[in-house]
Amino acid sequence: MDAKKPLTKQRQLVYHTVLHGDDHPTAADILERLHAAGHRISYATVYNSLRYLTEHGFLRELKVGETVSRYDARVEPHHHIVCRVCGRVDEVFAPIPDAYLHQVVEDTRYRIEDVDLVIHGLCPDCASRTSRDSAESAGH
């Protein structure tokens, strides 16, 4: 993180919106939350602030199979799991086994520089809804 250069007020607003959220918002989500809180800020300012914050290590930009990026204030190494039904994104801190990474290098001859694993599945809410729906349709 570039602690030498203070953040502008707009960048602080964008950063704190991501930091204090309980999800991984898109730029549109951030803009909506800032407007709902009474801040007058343009989409271009949000977008430019997000670019600055990611370039300087304050935020991580996530590409989790969607057409838009999401943002994460947790910048330490970790991975993500995405619900294929509702789109919820959660953090995964389980380490990737070294043996797996060694096998990837052996199979591909790549030099691994970064690992950003995205796992897809059903979140607990969607999984329980799917189970309930299956049970109800089996009973009819």
UniProtKB/TrEMBL annotation:
Gene3D superfamilies: 3.30.1490.190, Winged helix-like DNA-binding domain superfamily/Winged helix DNA-binding domain (1.10.10.10)
Thylakoid recorded as keyword: no
Cofactor(s) needed: Zn(2+)
Gene Ontology molecular function: DNA-binding transcription factor activity; transcription cis-regulatory region binding; zinc ion binding
Free-text comment on the cofactor: Binds 1 zinc ion per subunit.
The entry's keywords: DNA-binding, Metal-binding, Repressor, Transcription, Transcription regulation, Zinc
SUPFAM superfamilies with a match to the protein in the record: Winged helix' DNA-binding domain
A GO biological-process term: negative regulation of DNA-templated transcription
UniProt xrefs under PANTHER family: FERRIC UPTAKE REGULATION PROTEIN (PTHR33202:SF7), ZINC UPTAKE REGULATION PROTEIN (PTHR33202)
Protein name: Fur family transcriptional regulator, peroxide stress response regulator
Source organism per UniProt: Alicyclobacillus macrosporangiidus
